[in-house]
Write a structure and sequence with these properties.
The complex is a heterodimer of chains A (about 325) and B (about 500). Chain A contains 15 helices and two strands. With about 325 residues, chain A is mainly α. Chain A has a two-stranded antiparallel ribbon. Chain A is globular and about 75 Å long. The mean pLDDT of chain A is about 90. Chain B has three domains: about 240 residues, Rossmann fold; about 160 residues, P-loop containing nucleotide triphosphate hydrolases (Rossmann fold), CATH 3.40.50; about 80 residues, no CATH class. Chain B has 16 helices and 19 strands. A six-stranded mixed β-sheet of chain B has the order 5-6-7-3-8-9, sandwiched between helices. In chain B, helix 3 runs parallel beside helix 5, helix 4 packs across helix 5 and helix 13 runs parallel beside helix 14. Chain B is globular, with a radius of gyration of 25 Å. Classes of the chains: A mainly alpha (about 325), B alpha/beta (about 500). The interface between A and B is large, with 32 and 39 residues.
C-alpha cells in the first residue's frame, strides 16, 4: 500500500476517478458503455503512438518525428494500394515497413552523429513531412479502399471495436518486451545511466536502433488504424499532434530524461486527455476551451509529480548526523 | 623495488609495459610499467592527477594507449575494448559506481551476466537467484526488490561490488573503494577481498587514502605526474614514506601559517544546525586567516559551506559578519555581504563551458559594469578582465577563447578570479585543487596565501589533509555533521588527522 501511494500513477488514477465522477454527475451519458467504447475507438491511434513514445522516453531519448513517419506511411500505403491493389494485411505490412525504415534512420543519425535526439527528430520530422508534401503536392485522397472502412466498423461481440483491440494488443506486446526480455530491461538501463550501460557491456547502438525502429513500426502500424478511422489520407492530418502524445506519456508519469515510466501510466495519461476532450463537450463547454483545460491539467499533473520528487529527495538524508554528545 | 623477473611470469595475471598516453598537450602517462600477480592485493597509489584513473581506463579497455603493451596471462589481445577486457576477467568498480539507479538491486547485479549469455527472454527467477547468490557471497542483506536509487551510498557501493563479483572475475579493480564506507563496512569489504584472494583473484585498489589499504595490500605501485615512481613491498614502506613518494616532497616542508594574533573576526558562526546536514556548528574566521575544513565525503562540510553562501538555509543558529548578525537567504545577499564560494566541481557548478574566458571572469560582478543606459560598458569589461588575468597569472592567449581550452589549473584560476572580482571579505574554496596536476596545485596554494595576506579570510575545504596542514594554521575536523575538533596544524600530522576523521 505504501508503495502504491508513492507512485504517481496512483494519483493519476484518483484524478481520473474524480473527473469521471464529476462529468457523470453533470451528464450521465458520460459513463455510458457506448461513450466509453467510442472513446476507446477514437483514441486507438493516439494510444498506439503513445506506447512507442513511452519506449523512446524510457531509453533516455525522444522522438518528435513520429507523426511525420505515420503521415508518410499512411499516404504512401493508401496511394500504393489504390494503384496496385492490396488488402488489409498488405496495408499493415507496407506501412509498418515504411515506419521501421524511417525510424531506423532516426536511430542511426542519433547514434552515429551524436546529435541530441530532439534536434535530430525535429529535423527528420520536417524532412519526412516535407518530402511527402513535395511528392503529394498536398493532394488529399478522399476515397480509400473499402477494407479500411471494414476495419473501422468491425466489432467484437458486445460492440468492442476492433481498432481498440489492436491498441490493447500493442500494449500487451510492448509489456512483454519491456518486462520479459533482456532487451526491455536494457532499455530501462540505458535510460537510467548511459555511461554505466556502455561500461557494463550493453550494445547501445542495437538498443537505440530497436527503440527508434519500434517507434517507427508503431507509427506505421497505427497509421492504418488512423486511415480506417478517418477514411481518407490527408497529408497534414497527423503532423502537429506529436506534442499531445508526448504530453500524455509524461502526464502518465514517464520521466522525460529516461529510465522511468510505465504502460499503465501511459494508458491513463491518454485516458485522461480523452476524458477531458469528451467530457467537456458532454457537459456543454465550448470546444474552444479544450486546449486551455488540457494545458492546465498538464501543468498541474507535471507540477505534482515534480513536487513529489522534490519531497522524496529532501527527505533522503544528505548527512547522517550523529545525535547526542560526542 | 620489485619488478618480478621473467622466471615468475606464469604467476603474473596482468603485465603493463611502457604505457604512454597523452591528452592533447598533457602527458597523462609516461612509460608506465607494472605487473599484477595472481591472487595478489595490489595498490595503485598516487595523488589526484597522477595518472591512476587513466591507467585504469586503459586496463579496462575504455581508453587506448598511445604506445606500450598490455599482457593478460602473457597474451596481448588484438583489440582491447571494454567487452574484451570483461571477457578476460577484468571487472572495475568505478568511483561513480556506474549503477542503474532506476532498476532494482537484483537487476543491477544480475543483468550484465544475463546479457553476457546473450539471452533474449528474461527469467526473473534467474535474475533473483543470481543476485541472491552474489549477495550471499559477501554476506550482505539488502532487499533485492529495492530500487538502487533509494539505497545509501554505502549500500550502493556494496551492490556494485556484488555486480562485479557475479561474473568470472580474475582481476577486480576498485577505484577509491573505501571513501564512503564506515569502518564496519570497510571490514566487510576487506574480508571479502581476502576471500577473493584465496580464490586466486587479483585485486587492484586505486586510492590516495592509504591508511586502510595498508592493512591488506601486499604491494604498492606509486605514480606521480604520470610517471612510475616504483613498486614496493608493503614491509618496505611506512605511511610517511608512502606520502613522500606520492607527493615527491617531504610532508609539511613548506607549511605556511600567517599567525592569528589580534586579528579581527570577519565571520562567526554560532551553533548552526540544519536537519540531515549539520548540527551545532560554531567557529570564527579571522581577517587574513586560512581556516582548514576537512572531513570525509558526507560529513556535511559542503552543506555547511552552502549554508554560508545562502544556498542551504539553516534551521537554527547564528551567522555574524563583522560582529553583526546576518541572514543569508540567497547568493546575491551572500555576495553583497562579501562572501564568495568557489564550488567543488568547477565544471558543473563553476564554469560556464562554451563561454569565453573573459565572460567567465566577470560573470559574478557583471552588474557593476553597467553604464548609464544599463548596458555593459565594454571598455570597463575589457579592463576588468585584463586586470584579473594579469593579477592571477592565468596563462591565456586571448580572453575571447572558450574557457575549456585552458588547463585544469588555469580553469580553477578563472573561477577564483570571478569571485575575487566581487571583492569578497570571506572566500570559501571547496576542494580547489581536485583533479589538477601537482605544479598547478602549488600555484593555487601560492595564490591562496597571497590572498590571505591582503586580508581576505579564507575557508579551505579539502580532502587532502596534507593540503590543510600546509596552508592552514587551524583545521576544523568534521564528522557526521559535527565539528569533532579544531586542531592546531603545528601539532598534527596527516596520520593523526586521518584516523580521527573516520567513524569510530
Amino acid at each position: 500500500m505504501k508503495k502504491l501511494v508513492s507512485r504517481s500513477e496512483f494519483y493519476l488514477f484518483l484524478l481520473i476517478l474524480v473527473l469521471g465522477a464529476g462529468f457523470t454527475a453533470a451528464n450521465p451519458k458520460f459513463l455510458s458503455l457506448q461513450n466509453i467504447l467510442d472513446l476507446l475507438k477514437s483514441y486507438s491511434f493516439f494510444g498506439i503512438l503513445s506506447v512507442g513514445a513511452l519506449v523512446v522516453l524510457l531509453s533516455g531519448g525522444i522522438d518528435i518525428s513520429f507523426t511525420a513517419v505515420a503521415q508518410v506511411a499512411e499516404y504512401v500505403t493508401v496511394a500504393v494500394i489504390l494503384q496496385y491493389g492490396g488488402n488489409l494485411f498488405t496495408a499493415f505490412l507496407l506501412s509498418s515497413s515504411i515506419g521501421i525504415v524511417l525510424g531506423l534512420i532516426n536511430g542511426l543519425l542519433i547514434h552515429f552523429l551524436q546529435i541530441p535526439p530532439i534536434i535530430t527528430t525535429i529535423a527528420t520530422l520536417n524532412l519526412y513531412f516535407g518530402c511527402l508534401y513535395v511528392i503529394s503536392t498536398g493532394n488529399i485522397i478522399y476515397r480509400v479502399p473499402k477494407f479500411f472502412e471494414d476495419l473501422s466498423g468491425t466489432m467484437l461481440p458486445g460492440g468492442f471495436p476492433m481498432v481498440a483491440v489492436l491498441w490493447i494488443g500493442v500494449v500487451i506486446g510492448t509489456w512483454v518486451i519491456l518486462h520479459q526480455t533482456v532487451l526491455g530491461r536494457s532499455i530501462y538501463a540505458l535510460g537510467g545511466n548511459l555511461i554505466a550501460a556502455e561500461r557494463v557491456g550493453f550494445k547501445v547502438l542495437y538498443i537505440r536502433l530497436f527503440v527508434y525502429g519500434f517507434m517507427g513500426f508503431l507509427s506505421g502500424f497505427g497509421s492504418v488504424v488512423h486511415t480506417a478511422l478517418v477514411q481518407s489520407a490527408i497529408p497534414n492530418s497527423i503532423v502537429g499532434h506529436e506534442l499531445d502524445v508526448l504530453a500524455a506519456v509524461v502526464l502518465g508519469g514517464a520521466n522525460i530524461f529516461g529510465g522511468a515510466g510505465s504502460l499503465a501510466g501511459t494508458f491513463m495519461g491518454v485516458a485522461l486527455l480523452a476524458m477531458l476532450g469528451n467530457g467537456l463537450t458532454l457537459i456543454g463547454i465550448s470546444s474552444y476551451w479544450n486546449d486551455v483545460v488540457i494545458g492546465i491539467v498538464l501543468l498541474v499533473g507535471v507540477t505534482f509529480s515534480s513536487l513529489q520528487r522534490m519531497y522524496l529527495a529532501g527527505r533522503r538524508a544528505k548527512v547522517v548526523v550523529e545525535e547526542g554528545a560526542l | 623495488m620489485s619488478e618480478p623477473p621473467a622466471a615468475q611470469a606464469q604467476d603474473v595475471f596482468l603485465r603493463l609495459e611502457k604505457i604512454s598516453k597523452r591528452y592533447g598537450g598533457v602527458t597523462a602517462l609516461d612509460q608506465v610499467s607494472c605487473s599484477i600477480r595472481k591472487g595478489e592485493i595490489h595498490c595503485l597509489a598516487g595523488e589526484n592527477g597522477s595518472g591512476k584513473s587513466t591507467l585504469i581506463k586503459i586496463i579496462s579497455g575504455v581508453e587506448h594507449p598511445d604506445s606500450g603493451s598490455i599482457f593478460f596471462d602473457g597474451q596481448t589481445p588484438r583489440h582491447l575494448d571494454s567487452t574484451e577486457s570483461i571477457n578476460r576477467g577484468v571487472q572495475v568498480i568505478y568511483q561513480d559506481l556506474s549503477l542503474f539507479a532506476n532498476l532494482t538491486v537484483a537487476e543491477n547485479i544480475a543483468l550484465p551476466r544475463v546479457l553476457a549469455r546473450k539471452a533474449i527472454a528474461l527469467r526473473w527467477s534467474e535474475i533473483q537467484r543470481r543476485a541472491a547468490d552474489a549477495l550471499k557471497r559477501i554476506r550482505l542483506e539488502i532487499d533485492l526488490q529495492e530500487t538502487v536509487g533509494n539505497l545509501s551510498l554505502a549500500q550502493q557501493q556494496l551492490v556494485a561490488i556484488c555486480r562485479a563479483l557475479s561474473g568470472d572475475v580474475k582481476l577486480l579493480i576498485m577505484d577509491e573503494p573505501t571513501t564512503a564506507l564506515t569502518r564496519k563496512e570497510v571490514d566487510i569489504l576487506f574480508s571479502v577481498v581476502l576471500d577473493l584472494q584465496r580464490k586466486s583473484i587479483s585485486i587492484l585498489f586505486v586510492s590516495h587514502k592509504l591508511n586502510e589499504l595498508f592493512e591488506v595490500a601486499e604491494r604498492f605501485t606509486i605514480l606521480r605526474d604520470g610517471k612510475w615512481v616504483g613498486t614496493f613491498e608493503q614491509r618496505d614502506l611506512d605511511a610517511r614514506k608512502l606520502v613522500t613518494l606520492m607527493t615527491g616532497q617531504e610532508v609539511a616542508s613548506d607549511a605556511f601559517w600567517p599567525g592569528l594574533k589580534d586579528r579581527e573576526v570577519l565571520l562567526e558562526v554560532r551553533s548552526l544546525s540544519k536537519r540531515n546536514n549539520f548540527k551545532d556548528v560554531s567557529f570564527q574566521l579571522h581577517r587574513g586567516e586560512i581556516l582548514g575544513l576537512t572531513g570525509l565525503l558526507g560529513s556535511g562540510r559542503t552543506e555547511l559551506a552552502l549554508a554560508l553562501f545562502g544556498m542551504n538555509r539553516p534551521d537554527s543558529g547564528e551567522i555574524l559578519i563583522g560582529g553583526h548578525p546576518a541572514q543569508i537567504h540567497s547568493v546575491q545577499e551572500a555576495v553583497r555581504l562579501g562572501i564568495s564560494y568557489v564550488p567543488e566541481n568547477r565544471i558543473r557548478q563553476g564554469l560556464v563551458i562554451g563561454q569565453s574566458i573573459g565572460s567567465n571572469i566577470i560573470l559574478a560582478m557583471i552588474d557593476r559594469l553597467l553604464n548609464r543606459f544599463r548596458l555593459i560598458d565594454s571598455m570597463q569589461r575589457k579592463q576588468v578582465i585584463q586586470f584579473w588575468i594579469r593579477k592571477l597569472g592565468i596563462k591565456v592567449q586571448d580572453p575571447g577563447l572558450p574557457v575549456e581550452t585552458l588547463s585544469g589549473g588555469n580553469q580553477q584560476r578563472v573561477v577564483i578570479a570571478r569571485w575575487l572580482a566581487t571583492n569578497p571579505k570571506v572566500l570559501i574554496l571547496d576542494c580547489p585543487t581536485v583533479g589538477i596536476d601537482v605544479a598547478a596545485k602549488r600555484s593555487v596554494h601560492q595564490l591562496i596565501r597571497e590572498l590571505s595576506q591582503t586580508g581576505v579570510g579564507i575557508i579551505l575545504i579539502t580532502d587532502e589533509t596534507g593540503e590543510a596542514l600546509n596552508n592552514c594554521e587551524r583545521v576544523l575536523l568534521m564528522r557526521s555533521g559535527r565539528f569533532i575538533a579544531c586542531l592546531n596544524s603545528a601539532e598534527e600530522t596527516e596520520w593523526t588527522i586521518q584516523s580521527r576523521l573516520e567513524k569510530p
